[in-house]
Amino acid sequence: MRRDEPALIEGDGRVVSFAGLLARAERFAADLQRRGVQKGDRALIAMPVGADLYAALAGLWMVGAVAVFPEPALGLKGLRHAVHVARPKLLVATGAYRFLHLLPELWRARGVRSGRSGVPDSVALGADDPALMSFTSGSTGAPKSIVRSHGFLMAQRAAVAPVLETADGRDLVAFPVFVLVGLVAGRCSILPNWKLSRQEDVTGADLVNWVNLSGATRLLLPPALCERLVAVGVPDGVTDVFTGGGPVFPDVMRKLATQCRVTAVYGSTEAEPIAEIAANEISQADWAAMAAGDGLLVGAPVSVVDLRLQDDEVWVAGAHVNEGYLNPADDAANKVKDGGRIWHRTGDAGRLDAAGRLWLLGRHSARVTWRDGWLYPFQIEVAARLWDGVRRAALVEISGIPVLAVEADRQGDWPVPEGLDIRLVDAIPMDARHGSKVDLAALKAKLG
Fold it and tell me: What's the pTM value of the predicted model, to 2 decimals?
């Protein structure tokens, strides 16, 4: 990597070199020190995804400050929650976001902007020093605050490197955190030319146009955008698609795999990655098993994670697995100390096959009473997506009755298990974060 090589291509097409990005970060860091910002001070970040965001993040780290990122899918509610929990001393905002200072919760936070000149004094940082705070999606309750240390971020980078840091090229990255992986690896990252909070507005044609204009050769996209890409076709210059952030169903993966190499990565906010699989590693028997109701194959656990099953739930531990939340009271739900280690309960149900590969069965809490036991969501949803005319399916329990909501224009001659109530819907509501997970509460309300 040379300093003059492109580090980022912004959504408007502007190219920022590694040297240019470093210079912005150093100017910002020097200005922070002139303003008296100290190691450990927390700074709320309110900026669009762009070069200035990553320069500000690097600048904060140069002075030992901690970046606080609200959950963008939760809007103003999520921002207020982040401020209440983190109590930041600083507000790093640009454009219209500067008006956030008018919120009473942020009156005491000092506003800081990009620096004009200078190089910061060095600050000693250890692996245990906090680097950033982020929040869970809040889909199962109030968003929990996760504090990532500098050592944790490096462990996460080491865990994902074997998957992502392969071959040369340009990456279109729809997951802001993975831009950091690209920067460390010396890769050029192309930023989305759409607002991440308005992902539902992005069409397959929009994706193709941006890929062609930016020269992207690899795509890091959530499954919902992969579905739209399948509908229009992957551009010729793209060699690889990496997808995750939600279940990657076999109908989407198989169609994509006819046009390029495809890798699905399974993980969570607290543990990324956990497992991964390339489409060319899935055998005909595996495809058939998914169609028959065996669940969703997500591959072998990555080498640096320890994984075990407890009452069908996936538990993980490792250097890149979050061991606790900012509020210790939040740990009770999914942190377990056993044998000197802290295990994270993912909330996902799964099983391991004879080859040690993980098959997901869906959310453990979403299982329904079925005959003499349980029916897990992916045991029927994965198979149903392969039925003729079905776009999406979701299992819920309504008044003690298992119901499969099916997004389709009309009911076909489907192999519906006896005792399962089928209800057609025009659209199954999805999560606001990536549009790739079913919003169960909204679906239950829709079904009445």
Answer: 0.92
